[in-house]
């Protein structure tokens, strides 16, 4: 899905490609900082204390989510300044790209980098050693990981639209909703290997975020209803 979003909606516009790459870079920096803090915390703690290590893992995931959203806000501020510069340089006084389009492309950038790292970790696990499910655990690890990667790519895209809209119109509850959804999806991964506990809530949240982003982007509830019912 990530390549489809890129090819059909971004690849033909150089400005969108730049925004996408910059968004991916912002997500990467947030991951680097959160990983560094988690690594320091683990090294400074007792590795034999399993309860403590689990707590640090939960802390690392939650802190990473908050840092990602903080960097999303910083990226919004940067793009807002970029729009002002583009307007000042344009002959007609209009920006060649709207803030809604920037929000979408930035969200795809966050999602692409998130999906890329998820796939890298998945492929690293696939190299072994060991066999999935050999001790009676679920053998759906790779399949569910692929579905989880897909939903995260789409979620980051929709979250980008919702987050930027909240910042643009000073609707802080929309920003809070994005952070809560992100924390919920990331926290649900601790339900694994009971994959139903993570996949089902994630896809339900994706559907809700998609509908919400669609309406904020100018879509009508009537057209969405007709689309869901497959009516022309």
From TrEMBL:
<dbReference type="InterPro" id="IPR009294">
    <property type="entry name" value="Aph-1"/>
</dbReference>
<dbReference type="GO" id="GO:0070765">
    <property type="term" value="C:gamma-secretase complex"/>
</dbReference>
<feature type="transmembrane region" description="Helical">
    <location>
        <begin position="172"/>
        <end position="190"/>
    </location>
</feature>
<feature type="transmembrane region" description="Helical">
    <location>
        <begin position="102"/>
        <end position="120"/>
    </location>
</feature>
<comment type="similarity">
    <text>Belongs to the APH-1 family.</text>
</comment>
<keyword id="KW-0812">Transmembrane</keyword>
<protein>
    <recommendedName>
        <fullName>Gamma-secretase subunit APH-1</fullName>
    </recommendedName>
</protein>
<keyword id="KW-0914">Notch signaling pathway</keyword>
<comment type="subunit">
    <text>Component of the gamma-secretase complex.</text>
</comment>
<keyword id="KW-0472">Membrane</keyword>
<dbReference type="Pfam" id="PF06105">
    <property type="entry name" value="Aph-1"/>
</dbReference>
<feature type="transmembrane region" description="Helical">
    <location>
        <begin position="56"/>
        <end position="75"/>
    </location>
</feature>
<feature type="transmembrane region" description="Helical">
    <location>
        <begin position="140"/>
        <end position="165"/>
    </location>
</feature>
<keyword id="KW-1133">Transmembrane helix</keyword>
<feature type="transmembrane region" description="Helical">
    <location>
        <begin position="196"/>
        <end position="216"/>
    </location>
</feature>
<feature type="transmembrane region" description="Helical">
    <location>
        <begin position="17"/>
        <end position="41"/>
    </location>
</feature>
<comment type="function">
    <text>Potential subunit of the gamma-secretase complex, an endoprotease complex that catalyzes the intramembrane cleavage of integral proteins such as Notch receptors.</text>
</comment>
<dbReference type="GO" id="GO:0016485">
    <property type="term" value="P:protein processing"/>
</dbReference>
<dbReference type="GO" id="GO:0007219">
    <property type="term" value="P:Notch signaling pathway"/>
</dbReference>
């Amino acid at each position: 899905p990530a390549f489809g979003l890129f090819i059909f909606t971004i690849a033909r516009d150089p400005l969108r490609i730049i925004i996408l790459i910059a968004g991916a870079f912002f997500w990467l920096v947030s991951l680097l900082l959160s990983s560094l803090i988690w690594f320091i915390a683990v090294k400074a703690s007792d590795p034999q204390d399993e309860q403590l290590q689990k707590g640090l893992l939960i802390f690392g995931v939650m802190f990473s989510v908050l840092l990602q959203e903080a960097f999303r806000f910083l990226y919004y501020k940067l793009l807002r300044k970029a729009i002002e510069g583009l307007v000042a340089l344009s002959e007609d006084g209009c920006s060649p790209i709207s803030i809604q389009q920037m929000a979408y492309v930035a969200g795809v950038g966050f999602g692409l980098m998130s999906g890329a790292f998820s796939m890298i970790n998945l492929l690293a696990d696939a190299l072994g050693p060991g066999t999935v499910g050999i001790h009676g655990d679920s053998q759906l690890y790779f399949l569910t990981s692929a579905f989880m990667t897909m939903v995260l790519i789409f979620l980051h895209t929709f979250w980008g639209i919702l987050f930027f809209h909240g910042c643009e119109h000073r609707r802080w509850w929309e920003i809070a909703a994005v952070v809560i959804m992100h924390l919920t999806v990331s926290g649900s991964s601790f339900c694994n290997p009971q994959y139903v506990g993570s996949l089902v809530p994630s896809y339900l949240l994706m559907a809700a975020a998609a509908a919400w982003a669609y309406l904020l982007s100018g879509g009508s509830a009537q057209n969405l209803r007709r689309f869901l019912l497959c009516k022309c």
